Each structure stands twice: as C-alpha cells, then as structure tokens.
Model the fold of this input.
Amino acid sequence: MLTSARSISVRAAAILRPGVTGRVLASFERARDLVTAAGEVVAVVWGGIGNGPLNVVLDGSPQTVLPAGGRFDVQKRLLIVGDAMFDLSHAEPWDARPDWHTLRSRRMQMLAAAEAARRSIAGLRYESLLKQAGPAVEAAAVEFQQAWQQVASPHSPSTIRNLKSAIRDLCGLGPGLTPAGDDWLAGWLLAQHLAPDLTGFANLSGLVMDIAAVRTTILARALLACAAAGEADETWHALLSALA
Done:
C-alpha cells in the first residue's frame, strides 16, 4: 500500500536520502521510529501526532504492522518499510527551529509568563509514567540547577565536575525510550537558545551529548541532539509563541 506523507521535517528529509537503509527501532500504535545504518533517527507518525524535528507525518492511521527490527530503505522519494511504501515527494517541508531571534527579543516577557504558568500548575499531579520517575527526576533537576548556577559564574574544574555529575544523573533517568530525565535536559537545552549570549553553548551542549552517548537510548540521544540544535516539535512552538 502506498501512502503519501503530508509533511516532513527538514532534518528527516535530509536523513531519508535515496539509498539510505536501516531498521525499525520501535513500533507504537501511532508511530514507528526508524534508525538508519549510520544511527540517524526518524519517526513515521499518524493519527494526529503532528510535526516534530524527526517526523514524517501521515494522515489517517497505520494500515500495516511494522515490527521492530524490520528493514527499510529509501528509493528515490519512496520510503519502503516492509510491505508499506510512503511517498515523500509531495510532503511539505517543516522547519523545526522556532524564530529564536524574535523570541530572544521578548525574553523578559517570556520569563514573566513562564513564572506565572509555573505557579498556576504547581499543585497539579500527573498520572503517567512520570509518576514513577518524577521524584527522582525532580531531585536530579535540583542538583543540576545548583551545579549550573555555579558554572554560570566564574568557575573552577570542580564546578565543571559537579555539572557533569548532574548531567549523568539526569541522562537516561526514567522508563521508556525517552526517559523523563532526558526530556528535562532537552527542555533545558531549548531554553538556552533564549539566552542573550550563546557563547559557550556549543561546549555545554557537546558535554550533554557526550554523556548521553553512553547513558541513554538511541531515540533520546536523537531528541537531545535536536534540542541542542534548537529544534522542537510543534507543541513547543505553540508554548514559546504563547509565552512571547
């Protein structure tokens, strides 16, 4: 069965070059995560899951089972996964990078709006996988914030060691292919793109990626790389726009 993709992220389009091969990394009800032979990740998504930095978006629902471990390849603009074929030729390109320049110009308004939002949700409790990892993630996040505050001022080798330790504690913390600790780090990496001065950010994001390389999952590493590059899914775009 041939299905046409509605949209494709700029990153996913660059990854799915003709001749690329790989395997199904994970298969869910409305998403199939693919990893190329070079270790690059894309996600084929249906059923209302929208644009994201790794996503190929299709309408409707999956028509075939694509089990984990199955092979895929790209022939011209066709993504072939098992018996399923996805036509990428008419997919609208989607840029996962928000307009960081404009957002930075409204940084103070966004900080005030974020604080108001934080106060409004402070008493909520969520029934989800985060319930298992929540307290541990919260404790590790506090440790990270303390280490980051030390690094933000003139720092010594000991403060860098503290920051590395805090990153290691968060990386891979929690269940699933995208552990909650990595989600927290991804949010932190995105927030750094709002800073008026990005000097040194490449070193800090590189530190996160070096630690993630041995601490967490393939999918989480891919999403952290997207956040380090300032790429986020459309729900993040909506949140940042609302805060601005």
Observations:
- The chain has a mean pLDDT of 89.
- The chain has nine helices and ten strands.
- The CA atoms of residues 59 and 179 lie 27 Å apart.
